[in-house]
Amino acid sequence: MEKKYVDYGSCAAGKPGTTKEITGARFNLSPMSDDFERIILNAIKQVDLSKVWAETDHISTVYRGREEAVFDALKAAYLLAYEKGTHMTLEATISKGCPGDRDSDYTLEFENPRINQKDTQAIDFPVIGKYALYPMGSDNYMATIAEVVNEGIDRGVVTGSGHYGTNLGGNVQDLFDYLEYVSHTVGKTVSHYIIQFTLHCNVPEGEIK
Amino acid sequence: MEKKYVDYGSCAAGKPGTTKEITGARFNLSPMSDDFERIILNAIKQVDLSKVWAETDHISTVYRGREEAVFDALKAAYLLAYEKGTHMTLEATISKGCPGDRDSDYTLEFENPRINQKDTQAIDFPVIGKYALYPMGSDNYMATIAEVVNEGIDRGVVTGSGHYGTNLGGNVQDLFDYLEYVSHTVGKTVSHYIIQFTLHCNVPEGEIK
Questions:
Q1: Which residues of B touch A138 (CB under 8 A)?
Q2: Is residue A128 within 8 Å of A200, Cβ to Cβ?
Q3: In whole angstroms, what is the distance from residue A177 CA to residue A172 CA?
């Protein structure tokens, strides 16, 4: 069988592969329950996907479209999967401007991008987690990271710095507002960036020994 | 209360914040089982941590040290948490050379870094997943990514490219060998890089509707 090698030869930093303003999210829900399959699939099915391009396979789910629409759908997937008492982790990659991206697999609806807001605005619960921001192709990336981390400290949702990430804590609605702010702020000055974050709800209490 | 803002002002691309060759991993195990707490804590406790610096809190676990020792401990955490039939996700960030890093919180033992190998070498199982590589502070990052992806195609562990990541599949031992190869190869030429990966075992079969 012939091997299909990749070649990103025409890609260059600062030149997004797509000419559109496509933001993407690739994520996993991990409900730590024997009933995980029902919880995941029920949530994924409930999300209104009319404002994003979406694909779910056995590895993860991808949403692509306008920034507001992608965050709206991603938040909906997590909030609609929430069950009282069930420990659940959301791991998500937000990405924009990748030189290897293409003008395909997207929806850019300009009307009412936050289509899931009405179904999710009343759902709120405490979470803890972490995120890391990777501004690509830039030498001055630490200053960009410091700016948005400090905004998180002002908002009270950044709870500390750990190795390889910044710690998050607060209500899930505030956390999603903050993460969307990070994406939006960085996107104004950085051509290609990635935000990697993890949120945990219903975290078991007590000391870890 | 006074807010403790961050300031990465003296950090610069290409100048790792630590003078040592410290590789780090920050990770989460998510066994999708009612018994998740026992599975996670039992595994974490079984890992021999004498060759890495380690810290577990409610958000994640961090290992820091020599590259071989960190990969050895990380692989052990996942393999020792494996239970037949239990769907489980490992999400991990591998990082090296961060300008914001410090010469603290590490162990650099030079004897026998793969201390867990004897307990994990007989454990193997199929996994699927994805990874992304972020070479920081470099304009030519897509070429670096292409090189290691193509090696994964040769090894048969890279199964395709998706949005925002490269798909992985194969036996878990081969996958860890490959991910360590990626880290080692990129580390030879890139001062600061991150590898973000996700592995799933015991994935439910059948179509996703």
A1: 13, 137
A2: yes
A3: 9
Residues 6+ apart with CB under 8 A from B77: B27, B29, B43, B44, B47, B61, B90
The Cα-based distances of A162 to A126, B25, B56, B131 in angstroms read 20, 12, 11, 22
Mean pLDDT of chain B: 90
The CATH architecture annotation of domain B23-201 reads 2-Layer Sandwich (3.30)
Confidence of residue A13 (pLDDT cuts 50, 70, 90): low
Spatial CB neighbours of A52, under 8 Å, sequence gap ≥ 6: A63, A64, A65, A69, A70, A73, A107
With H, G, I as helix, E, B as strand and everything else as coil, classify residue B78. helix
Encode burial over B48-80: b for 16+ CB neighbours within 10 A, e otherwise: bbebbbbebeebbbbbbbbbbbbbbbbbbbbbb
Segment 69-128 of chain B within 8 Å of chain A by CB: 87, 89, 91, 93, 95, 98-101, 105, 128
Which residue in A has a C-alpha nearest to residue B99's C-alpha? A142
Mean pLDDT (whole number) for B86-112: 88
> Chain A partners of B4 at a C-beta cutoff of 8 Å?
153
Q: What is the ipTM of this complex?
A: 0.91
How far, in Å, are A119, A183, B80 from residue A109 at the CA level? 19, 19, 46
Q: Are A15 and A191 in contact (CB under 8 A)?
A: yes
Tokens of A69: 């629409």
B 140-169: CB under 8 A from A: 140-143, 145-146, 149-150, 153-154, 161-165, 167
Q: Can you list the positions of beta strands (E) in B84-205?
A: 88-96, 126-135, 158-162, 165-171, 193-201
Q: What is the pTM for the complete model shown?
A: 0.93
Quickly state the pLDDT bin for A72 (edges 50, 70, 90).
Answer: very high
pLDDT above 80 for A141: no
